[in-house]
């Protein structure tokens, strides 16, 4: 007979939150900026096909960071919900608030259900009105929380660094060109340097209320971006990132094993469960140096099941410098730590 | 309508699969599909207004479609200013003849279908793909058509790959036929087509093509009681859509009325319209 281990609800939720937060911080940031004629989305995305920013309905757009397959599912569900509602009622009856609510309920239910892996995604839902005061920008986190954002918002990657840069340079009610320049500069900004992101590696889209068609969503192509951004000096593409690999693949494994952090995904860690004999709580497991170097005692990688509830087996990788030793304390929500290779 | 009231998105919404809105609706809310409604047996054709004549013609660099504004119920004019030509998406337009209510609903479904595909797949359907989807919607309506509630559309658009305007006609069983140069559907279509035969030339520009279809609609209204001519007292003129490589738009009423006024002025001199050379 197997003995069921007791895990406190607090610990369970904390583990799930840490798991989701780590996945989100691994990708690159997405910036949403309100400007005079609507809402602008800017992200660094070398892929021309796998979009992070998409159209949902006439005046509603969607942007996401995290695992591609998960937010793509949410996007398609949103398009279906919006189209169905617009067809059953009227196009004006499709609202960003309704969509944000549906997403919040969905993410919240998945997060708290024991049977499902929490989604490693964070989402913006934006809706434009007839005037700038009516524009709405919602941020939804992996656990289904909704925040009403004003002015600008950043998610994914080193969100706090980008947000700090925007806080300094953002001007409310700016024209599209100025808003774009500020957002692109913020994305290239890190604590150590300011990088010039090539126009071809940017994914930019906007909800523009000055468009004559009912569908207000438009993508800004590379030529238009280059024209607006002008000469900015030598460009430098971002280093390869985990999310550049096969879409929907498991998260990139890196960093050192930290026995104090039961949620890190490097092998050798103490299992995030209490010791059945001593009854030690999982919150503070005995701190001991890792006995096995990373790379040993790995479970075989199963490529057929990338979306398992358990974190996939790590891939051998050298500990990367720059990874701060984990303290077991998660950062505050909304300020994910800079992931390795993302600074 | 359970999916609308539930707070969490239903699992079926998150399931990858079809990019077709009509297919999705058929599984999720079949009662919303116009073709899934059961109608008591018998002829229901006299219950609802009927839309009448639609004409379309290509020109170098695009295609135009125009529809008259009349809907009839038997001998009654049900509506004088009905709109029967609708944009399907940015580069295509659909005009409808037949049972007006069903047809308008089918156009809404078709518009959503094209937009839905575009948003889900990130790319637009090909011109033939759009024409085939419309054929499938018409085919699903065959049961209702046999009870007198037929919908017969005319579909036209600018094919960005072939770089030319194209016209597709349909029958009630969903048969799809590509037409060259010009075509017409509805009760006055025989007269409109005869008129276009004499007026159409391959070197027409956009305005010339609009003039030709407005002339054709006048000829249809001349001989078919169910087709409305230009209403000069109420200033109601045909709905005209022009589609080129830059996209499609409804021609503003002022421009249509200017062309219609010129046509009417010349018909004052020669009521049968311009005379075509004999040889």
Average predicted local confidence, pLDDT of chain B: 90
The total count of helices of chain A amounts to 6
Taken in chain order, the helices and strands of chain B follow as HHHEEEEEEEHHHEEEEHHEEH
User: Mind summarizing the main beta sheet of chain B?
Assistant: 8 strands, antiparallel
Give the overall shape of chain A. Answer: globular
- Counting DSSP E segments of at least 2 residues, the number of strands of chain B comes to 13
Question: Regions of chain B with pLDDT < 50 over 5+ consecutive residues?
Answer: 1-5
Q: How far apart, in Å, are the first and last alpha carbons of chain A?
A: 49 Å
The sequence of SSEs of chain A as H and E is: HEEEEHHEEEEHHEEH
Shape of chain B: globular
Total count of domains of chain B: 1
Can you tell me the residue ranges of chain A where pLDDT is under 50 for at least 5 consecutive residues? 246-254, 267-276, 294-343
Alpha-beta content class of chain A: alpha+beta
Helix content of chain B: 25-40%
Assembly state (oligomeric): heterodimer
- Note the main sheet of chain A: 5 strands, antiparallel
Radius of gyration of chain B: 20 Å
Number of helices of chain B: 9
Kindly report the greatest chain-chain contact and the residue count on each side: A-B, 27 and 24 residues
Q: Which SSEs are present, and which pair or pack?
A:
The complex is a heterodimer of chains A (343) and B (279).
Chain A: H1 9-26, E1 30-35, E2 38-44, E3 53-57, E4 60-66, H2 68-88, H3 96-112, E5 121-127, E6 136-140, E7 146-149, E8 152-155, H4 159-169, H5 176-188, E9 202-208, E10 217-220, H6 222-229
Antiparallel strand pairs in A: 1-2, 1-8, 2-9, 3-4, 4-5, 5-6, 6-7, 9-10
Chain B: H1 2-5, H2 11-14, H3 21-28, E1 50-51, E2 54-59, E3 62-67, E4 71-73, E5 76-79, E6 85-89, E7 92-99, H4 100-121, H5 127-140, H6 142-145, E8 151-159, E9 164-170, E10 176-179, E11 182-185, H7 189-199, H8 206-223, E12 239-244, E13 247-250, H9 253-269
Antiparallel strand pairs in B: 1-4, 1-7, 2-3, 2-11, 3-12, 4-5, 6-7, 7-8, 8-9, 9-10, 12-13
